[in-house]
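Researcher: Going back to the complex we discussed earlier. I've cleaned up the inputs and rechecked each line, so this should be the final set. Can you rerun the prediction on the complete assembly and write out the structure?
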Amino acid sequence: MLRSLIAAFCLFCLPVSAAEEQVVLGLSQDRVAITATFDGSEILIFGAIKRETPIPSGPPVEVIVAVAGPSEPVTVRRKDRKLGIWVNTDSVLVDLAPSFYAVATSGPLNEILSDTDDLRYRVSIERAIRSVGAAMHIRGAQDFADAVVRIREEEKLYSIREDTVAVDEQTLFRTSIDMPADLTEGDYVARIFLTRGGEVVSHYETTIDVRKVGLERFLYNMSRQQPVWYGLMSLVIAIAAGWGASTAFRLLREK
Amino acid sequence: MYIYLPIAEVSVNAFLLLGLGGMVGVLSGMFGVGGGFLMTPLLFFIGIPPAVAVATEANQIVASSFSGVLAHFRRKTVDLRMGTVLLIGGLIGAALGVVVFNYLKSLGQVDLLVKLCYVVFLGVIGSLMFVESLRALRKAKMGGAAPAKRRQRGWIHALPFKMRFRTSGLYISVIPPVLVGLFVGILSAIMGVGGGFIMVPAMIYLLGMPTKVVVGTSLFQIIFVTAFTTMLHATTNYTVDVVLAVLLLVGGVIGAQIGTVIGARMPAEQLRVLLAALVLAVCGKLALDLLLEPAELYSLGTGGGH
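Model: Rerun complete. Updated structure for the full complex:
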């Protein structure tokens, strides 16, 4: 709470010049529907930089787009060899890690974003994960946070793609974010940062609604809210399907 | 065609699932086994979370055993009394199994438990079947099979709480069948299997039931125990994926019909060697996963976990 208050205060203290350049944003879709045949989605993010004044001189404007899925605590477990087999031994609770995180930039991230602003806005993948509660008694607690990034990068859930935001005439920008099939649902936050010389001069935030719909929605809700009925329904459906199929086959063979 | 499984929350090729169901169905038709003990590990291999695989497989077994038990009822080859006694043990066992399952899940050890159980059981059963069928093959070649010897069942007759099972023609204590049921119930909850591969030999050799009622009676018990297991998993873990179950089932029923035809044309002894080899192969793959250093030492779990 205190942390967010401080963060909010910092935002207020930003120099007035932050408002000189503003983002006007468009999304190809502001909702992603997870249907039965969902196999990933691509979201086009495009926009323009609105100015009341001429383009400032100095370093050119750079654009960073970060899309984050809902954050939740993650238990990271490490395997160790015990009695000849590999079993989970140590575990660390990472307080908050986004279920999905994709960053697209118009240039190398460490050049267009200063460390201070990365810390303030939590832009890079390492900063987006929070593990203050990582138990210090476990050797190499940082390894566990790194493992979250590595595993999710492998599953295409985390990605950082530099030089994939096209910026035209310091005014128009566009990029696309790939979302894999194995998405968790929730409110995804898309943040767009404009930077000059490594400092964030303006940022904009919007949400993308990722939801299971139709049958997926119905089954998922039912399994959580009415597990008894869901279980009974599963049994009835399965029995009907199995019995129906074998009866159909028997009739076919008797003909 | 990819399909998003609502509970497993993974996207899988629907034809892969139909194919897997069909393949295991062919095997279950050929060998007359339930196939749960093959399907669950195969689901691990294609990336279904073990907790979902176990719970969903229990659901599928209910359905695939249902038409089987109907046929046995028609032929009057179900010992209802014995089935009920086995069932009582089975329900207690399933409840115990789910408690153990959920406890280990909270510790993050459930995958290990499930896989270890599979390695041990597939290893033991596979080796026994392999040795037995090789011996049968050799005997078949030499000609003239020796009559199987019945085991001494003296100690079972000494136990109290005797009960008469008319259909099976037995007068024995209820303790052994309850224990057999209990054991199978635990396996059903932890491994997502029907347990026929344990129960059928136990009924023949341990309880001394006549072979013709064994299959029907075990199916009767399996249906209720796996249904109970499904309900327990659905209400405590929310891990029953009905879409997955139906896809596997449709493939399975079709495969089983094909398997029955193939099975009728091939010599029984060679079939059993094949099945034994297959069981050992799956066991070996699971064992290697546990023994070799994994490429990724870390794994992620959701939530607090404490």
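Model: Worth noting: Residues 213-255 of chain A form one domain.
Researcher: Good, that matches what I expected from the previous run.
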